[in-house]
Protein backbone atom coordinates (compact mmCIF):
# COMPACT_ATOMS: atom_id res chain seq x y z
CA UNK A 1 0.00 0.00 0.00
CA UNK A 2 2.86 2.43 0.81
CA UNK A 3 4.41 1.87 -2.62
CA UNK A 4 1.14 2.78 -4.35
CA UNK A 5 1.12 6.15 -2.57
CA UNK A 6 4.77 6.94 -3.30
CA UNK A 7 4.68 6.38 -7.07
CA UNK A 8 1.98 9.03 -7.80
CA UNK A 9 3.86 11.56 -5.66
CA UNK A 10 7.09 10.97 -7.62
CA UNK A 11 5.19 11.51 -10.86
CA UNK A 12 3.83 14.83 -9.62
CA UNK A 13 7.33 15.98 -8.55
CA UNK A 14 8.79 14.96 -11.92
CA UNK A 15 6.19 16.98 -13.83
CA UNK A 16 6.81 20.06 -11.60
CA UNK A 17 10.58 19.84 -12.02
CA UNK A 18 10.46 20.65 -15.77
CA UNK A 19 7.86 23.38 -15.68
CA UNK A 20 10.20 26.27 -16.66
CA UNK A 21 10.85 27.32 -20.26
CA UNK A 22 13.57 29.49 -21.76
CA UNK A 23 13.72 30.74 -25.35
CA UNK A 24 17.24 30.82 -26.80
CA UNK A 25 18.26 34.15 -28.33
CA UNK A 26 21.39 36.02 -29.28
CA UNK A 27 22.84 38.05 -26.43
CA UNK A 28 25.67 40.58 -26.45
CA UNK A 29 28.16 39.81 -23.70
CA UNK A 30 31.59 40.96 -22.68
CA UNK A 31 34.38 39.07 -24.36
CA UNK A 32 36.28 38.18 -21.20
CA UNK A 33 39.91 37.22 -20.97
CA UNK A 34 41.37 35.34 -17.99
CA UNK A 35 44.43 37.05 -16.50
CA UNK A 36 46.38 36.69 -13.28
CA UNK A 37 46.14 39.48 -10.70
CA UNK A 38 48.21 40.10 -7.59
CA UNK A 39 46.81 41.09 -4.21
CA UNK A 40 48.54 44.30 -3.16
CA UNK A 41 47.96 46.88 -0.42
CA UNK A 42 46.81 50.31 -1.56
CA UNK A 43 49.64 51.81 0.48
CA UNK A 44 52.71 50.09 1.88
CA UNK A 45 53.84 52.05 4.93
CA UNK A 46 57.35 52.10 6.36
CA UNK A 47 58.08 52.67 10.06
CA UNK A 48 61.55 54.19 10.44
CA UNK A 49 63.80 55.06 13.34
CA UNK A 50 63.97 58.82 13.89
CA UNK A 51 67.14 58.69 16.01
CA UNK A 52 70.17 56.45 16.09
CA UNK A 53 70.66 54.05 18.96
CA UNK A 54 69.95 50.56 20.24
CA UNK A 55 66.59 48.79 20.05
CA UNK A 56 65.60 48.01 23.65
CA UNK A 57 62.01 46.92 22.91
CA UNK A 58 60.37 45.39 19.83
CA UNK A 59 56.66 44.66 20.20
CA UNK A 60 55.62 43.40 16.72
CA UNK A 61 56.37 40.51 14.40
CA UNK A 62 55.38 39.56 10.88
CA UNK A 63 51.62 39.16 10.50
CA UNK A 64 50.58 41.29 13.48
CA UNK A 65 47.78 43.82 13.12
CA UNK A 66 48.68 47.29 14.37
CA UNK A 67 46.78 50.54 14.81
CA UNK A 68 48.00 53.88 13.54
CA UNK A 69 50.20 55.63 16.08
CA UNK A 70 50.87 52.49 18.13
CA UNK A 71 54.41 52.08 19.47
CA UNK A 72 56.06 49.13 17.75
CA UNK A 73 59.64 49.59 18.96
CA UNK A 74 61.77 51.79 21.19
CA UNK A 75 65.26 53.04 20.35
CA UNK A 76 67.52 54.37 23.11
CA UNK A 77 70.70 56.40 22.66
CA UNK A 78 72.74 56.31 25.87
CA UNK A 79 74.57 59.50 24.89
CA UNK A 80 71.33 61.46 25.16
CA UNK A 81 70.96 60.48 28.83
CA UNK A 82 74.52 61.62 29.53
CA UNK A 83 73.95 64.89 27.69
CA UNK A 84 70.77 65.41 29.71
CA UNK A 85 72.64 64.90 32.98
CA UNK A 86 75.37 67.34 31.90
CA UNK A 87 72.78 69.96 30.95
CA UNK A 88 70.96 69.56 34.25
CA UNK A 89 74.22 70.31 36.08
CA UNK A 90 74.91 73.33 33.90
CA UNK A 91 71.36 74.59 34.41
CA UNK A 92 71.78 74.37 38.19
CA UNK A 93 75.06 76.28 37.94
CA UNK A 94 73.53 78.90 35.68
CA UNK A 95 70.53 79.20 38.00
CA UNK A 96 72.90 80.02 40.87
CA UNK A 97 74.66 82.65 38.75
CA UNK A 98 71.33 84.14 37.79
CA UNK A 99 70.26 84.29 41.46
CA UNK A 100 73.52 86.08 42.33
CA UNK A 101 73.04 88.51 39.42
CA UNK A 102 69.51 89.21 40.67
CA UNK A 103 70.83 90.00 44.15
CA UNK A 104 73.49 92.31 42.68
CA UNK A 105 70.89 94.08 40.56
CA UNK A 106 68.52 94.52 43.50
CA UNK A 107 71.37 95.95 45.58
CA UNK A 108 72.41 98.31 42.74
CA UNK A 109 68.79 99.42 42.33
CA UNK A 110 68.52 100.25 46.04
CA UNK A 111 71.81 102.14 46.00
CA UNK A 112 70.73 103.99 42.88
CA UNK A 113 67.53 104.99 44.60
CA UNK A 114 69.53 106.39 47.50
CA UNK A 115 71.92 108.13 45.13
CA UNK A 116 75.06 106.46 46.48
CA UNK A 117 76.08 104.61 43.29
CA UNK A 118 76.77 105.49 39.70
CA UNK A 119 74.65 104.87 36.64
CA UNK A 120 77.45 102.76 35.17
CA UNK A 121 77.41 100.31 38.08
CA UNK A 122 73.62 100.08 37.87
CA UNK A 123 73.75 99.39 34.12
CA UNK A 124 76.42 96.73 34.62
CA UNK A 125 74.28 94.93 37.21
CA UNK A 126 71.23 95.06 34.97
CA UNK A 127 73.22 93.75 31.99
CA UNK A 128 74.67 90.90 34.06
CA UNK A 129 71.14 89.89 35.10
CA UNK A 130 69.89 89.95 31.49
CA UNK A 131 72.82 87.81 30.33
CA UNK A 132 72.22 85.31 33.13
CA UNK A 133 68.51 85.07 32.26
CA UNK A 134 69.21 84.52 28.58
CA UNK A 135 71.89 81.90 29.23
CA UNK A 136 69.52 80.05 31.54
CA UNK A 137 66.74 80.15 28.93
CA UNK A 138 69.13 78.86 26.23
CA UNK A 139 70.23 75.94 28.43
CA UNK A 140 66.63 75.02 29.15
CA UNK A 141 65.87 75.09 25.42
CA UNK A 142 68.83 72.78 24.82
CA UNK A 143 67.44 70.45 27.45
CA UNK A 144 64.03 70.46 25.75
CA UNK A 145 65.71 69.45 22.49
CA UNK A 146 67.37 66.45 24.13
CA UNK A 147 64.13 65.47 25.85
CA UNK A 148 62.36 65.59 22.47
CA UNK A 149 65.10 63.50 20.88
CA UNK A 150 64.70 60.94 23.66
CA UNK A 151 60.92 60.83 23.06
CA UNK A 152 61.52 60.27 19.33
CA UNK A 153 63.12 56.98 20.23
CA UNK A 154 59.58 55.54 20.19
CA UNK A 155 58.99 54.10 16.70
CA UNK A 156 55.29 54.56 15.88
CA UNK A 157 53.19 52.79 13.27
CA UNK A 158 52.48 55.31 10.48
CA UNK A 159 49.04 53.79 9.89
CA UNK A 160 46.75 50.88 10.64
CA UNK A 161 47.41 47.60 8.85
CA UNK A 162 49.24 44.28 8.90
CA UNK A 163 52.97 44.00 9.51
CA UNK A 164 54.71 42.50 6.48
CA UNK A 165 58.38 42.54 7.43
CA UNK A 166 60.44 43.31 10.52
CA UNK A 167 64.07 43.40 9.34
CA UNK A 168 65.48 44.23 12.80
CA UNK A 169 65.74 42.52 16.18
CA UNK A 170 65.97 43.62 19.78
CA UNK A 171 69.45 44.77 20.73
CA UNK A 172 70.43 45.85 17.22
CA UNK A 173 72.02 49.24 16.62
CA UNK A 174 70.12 51.47 14.19
CA UNK A 175 71.00 54.57 12.25
CA UNK A 176 68.51 57.44 11.87
CA UNK A 177 66.03 56.69 9.08
CA UNK A 178 66.61 52.94 9.09
CA UNK A 179 63.54 50.74 8.51
CA UNK A 180 62.07 49.01 11.54
CA UNK A 181 58.94 47.49 9.93
CA UNK A 182 56.89 47.61 6.74
CA UNK A 183 53.11 47.68 7.10
CA UNK A 184 50.44 46.92 4.52
CA UNK A 185 47.53 49.33 4.90
CA UNK A 186 44.14 47.86 5.75
CA UNK A 187 42.70 48.18 2.24
CA UNK A 188 43.84 45.65 -0.37
CA UNK A 189 43.42 45.81 -4.14
CA UNK A 190 44.02 43.57 -7.14
CA UNK A 191 46.80 44.74 -9.43
CA UNK A 192 46.49 43.68 -13.07
CA UNK A 193 49.17 43.67 -15.75
CA UNK A 194 47.52 43.37 -19.15
CA UNK A 195 49.09 43.16 -22.61
CA UNK A 196 49.36 46.52 -24.35
CA UNK A 197 46.72 45.59 -26.95
CA UNK A 198 44.08 45.51 -24.20
CA UNK A 199 44.82 49.04 -22.98
CA UNK A 200 42.14 50.54 -25.23
CA UNK A 201 39.42 48.41 -23.58
CA UNK A 202 40.35 49.10 -19.95
CA UNK A 203 38.63 52.07 -18.30
CA UNK A 204 38.16 53.20 -14.72
CA UNK A 205 34.77 52.00 -13.49
CA UNK A 206 34.74 48.78 -15.58
CA UNK A 207 33.53 45.60 -13.88
CA UNK A 208 35.97 42.75 -13.33
CA UNK A 209 34.94 39.21 -12.34
CA UNK A 210 37.18 37.52 -9.77
CA UNK A 211 37.49 33.74 -9.64
CA UNK A 212 36.99 31.83 -6.41
CA UNK A 213 40.03 31.49 -4.20
CA UNK A 214 42.15 28.56 -5.26
CA UNK A 215 40.67 28.77 -8.78
CA UNK A 216 38.17 26.03 -7.97
CA UNK A 217 35.76 27.30 -10.62
CA UNK A 218 33.03 29.91 -10.67
CA UNK A 219 33.09 33.59 -9.79
CA UNK A 220 33.66 34.63 -6.21
CA UNK A 221 32.71 38.29 -6.59
CA UNK A 222 32.90 41.33 -8.84
CA UNK A 223 35.30 44.24 -8.56
CA UNK A 224 35.55 47.69 -10.12
CA UNK A 225 38.60 49.16 -11.84
CA UNK A 226 39.67 52.13 -9.71
CA UNK A 227 42.71 53.29 -11.66
CA UNK A 228 44.40 52.61 -14.99
CA UNK A 229 47.98 53.83 -14.91
CA UNK A 230 48.85 56.10 -17.84
CA UNK A 231 52.26 54.49 -18.37
CA UNK A 232 52.89 51.21 -20.20
CA UNK A 233 55.79 49.29 -18.65
CA UNK A 234 57.39 46.41 -20.50
CA UNK A 235 54.54 46.23 -23.01
CA UNK A 236 51.91 45.94 -20.28
CA UNK A 237 49.30 48.31 -18.92
CA UNK A 238 48.80 48.25 -15.15
CA UNK A 239 45.41 48.68 -13.48
CA UNK A 240 44.14 48.54 -9.88
CA UNK A 241 40.81 46.89 -9.04
CA UNK A 242 38.74 47.42 -5.89
CA UNK A 243 37.34 44.13 -4.60
CA UNK A 244 35.68 43.87 -1.18
CA UNK A 245 36.74 41.16 1.24
CA UNK A 246 40.44 40.83 0.38
CA UNK A 247 41.55 41.34 3.97
CA UNK A 248 42.28 37.64 4.59
CA UNK A 249 44.37 37.24 1.42
CA UNK A 250 48.15 37.15 1.53
CA UNK A 251 49.96 40.14 0.09
CA UNK A 252 51.36 38.99 -3.23
CA UNK A 253 48.84 36.14 -3.58
CA UNK A 254 47.90 35.37 -7.18
CA UNK A 255 44.29 34.99 -8.24
CA UNK A 256 42.50 34.64 -11.57
CA UNK A 257 40.28 37.43 -12.82
CA UNK A 258 38.30 37.94 -16.00
CA UNK A 259 38.46 41.30 -17.73
CA UNK A 260 36.45 42.58 -20.68
CA UNK A 261 38.35 42.92 -23.95
CA UNK A 262 35.38 43.85 -26.13
CA UNK A 263 31.85 42.68 -26.98
CA UNK A 264 30.54 39.61 -28.83
CA UNK A 265 27.20 37.88 -29.44
CA UNK A 266 26.46 34.43 -28.14
CA UNK A 267 23.68 32.23 -26.74
CA UNK A 268 23.16 32.06 -22.98
CA UNK A 269 20.93 29.51 -21.23
CA UNK A 270 20.28 29.10 -17.51
CA UNK A 271 22.88 26.92 -15.81
CA UNK A 272 20.12 24.68 -14.42
CA UNK A 273 19.04 23.73 -17.95
CA UNK A 274 22.38 22.01 -18.68
CA UNK A 275 22.88 18.54 -17.23
CA UNK A 276 25.48 15.87 -17.72
CA UNK A 277 25.21 12.16 -18.42
CA UNK A 278 28.08 9.83 -19.24
CA UNK A 279 30.42 12.81 -19.52
CA UNK A 280 28.26 14.55 -22.15
CA UNK A 281 26.35 17.83 -21.64
CA UNK A 282 22.64 17.84 -22.60
CA UNK A 283 19.66 20.20 -22.62
CA UNK A 284 16.04 19.18 -23.03
CA UNK A 285 13.86 21.01 -25.54
CA UNK A 286 10.18 21.76 -25.12
CA UNK A 287 9.45 19.06 -27.68
CA UNK A 288 10.96 16.51 -25.31
CA UNK A 289 14.09 15.91 -27.39
CA UNK A 290 17.50 15.83 -25.71
CA UNK A 291 20.20 17.83 -27.48
CA UNK A 292 23.94 17.47 -26.98
CA UNK A 293 25.53 20.90 -26.44
CA UNK A 294 29.01 22.27 -26.14
CA UNK A 295 29.08 24.70 -23.19
CA UNK A 296 31.49 27.60 -22.89
CA UNK A 297 32.11 30.05 -20.07
CA UNK A 298 29.83 30.21 -17.07
CA UNK A 299 28.72 33.47 -15.52
CA UNK A 300 26.11 35.01 -13.25
CA UNK A 301 23.60 35.05 -16.16
CA UNK A 302 24.02 31.42 -17.12
CA UNK A 303 26.10 29.15 -19.36
CA UNK A 304 27.32 30.08 -22.82
CA UNK A 305 26.37 27.54 -25.50
CA UNK A 306 28.91 27.28 -28.31
CA UNK A 307 27.16 24.57 -30.35
CA UNK A 308 24.04 22.40 -30.27
CA UNK A 309 21.29 25.03 -30.10
CA UNK A 310 19.75 27.53 -32.50
CA UNK A 311 18.10 30.86 -31.93
CA UNK A 312 14.43 30.30 -31.15
CA UNK A 313 14.79 26.87 -29.50
CA UNK A 314 12.76 26.54 -26.31
CA UNK A 315 14.73 24.93 -23.50
CA UNK A 316 13.14 23.37 -20.44
CA UNK A 317 14.58 24.36 -17.05
CA UNK A 318 13.86 22.64 -13.74
How are the elements arranged and paired?
Elements: H1 2-17, E1 20-23, E2 26-41, E3 44-48, E4 53-58, E5 65-66, E6 71-76, H2 78-114, H3 119-151, E7 154-156, E8 161-165, E9 173-174, E10 179-185, E11 188-195, E12 207-211, E13 219-233, E14 236-242, E15 254-269, E16 275-277, E17 280-284, E18 290-292, E19 294-299, E20 302-307, E21 314-317
Helix pairs in contact: 2-3
What does this structure look like?
With 318 residues, the chain is an alpha+beta fold. It folds into three domains: 18-42 and 187-317, Elongation Factor Tu (Ef-tu), domain 3; 45-77 and 153-186, Beta Barrel (OB fold (Dihydrolipoamide Acetyltransferase, E2P)); 81-136. Helix content is 27%, strand content 42%. The chain has three helices and 21 strands. The chain has helices at residues 2-17, 78-114, 119-151, and strands spanning 20-23, 26-41, 44-48, 53-58, 65-66, 71-76, 154-156, 161-165, 173-174, 179-185, 188-195, 207-211, 219-233, 236-242, 254-269, 275-277, 280-284, 290-292, 294-299, 302-307, 314-317. Strands 2-11-14-13-12-15 form a six-stranded antiparallel barrel. Strands 3-10-8-5 form a four-stranded antiparallel beta sheet, with no helix packed on it. Helix 2 runs antiparallel to helix 3 (119-151). It is rod-shaped. The model is unreliable at 1-18 (pLDDT under 50).
Mean pLDDT: 83
Range of helix content = 25-40%
Q: Which topology of the largest domain does CATH recognise?
A: Elongation Factor Tu (Ef-tu), domain 3
CATH class of the largest domain: Mainly Beta
Strand order, main sheet: write it out. Answer: 2-11-14-13-12-15
Count of folded domains: 3
Which CATH architecture of the largest domain? Beta Barrel
Radius of gyration: 39 Å
CATH superfamily of the largest domain: Efflux pump adaptor protein, beta barrel domain
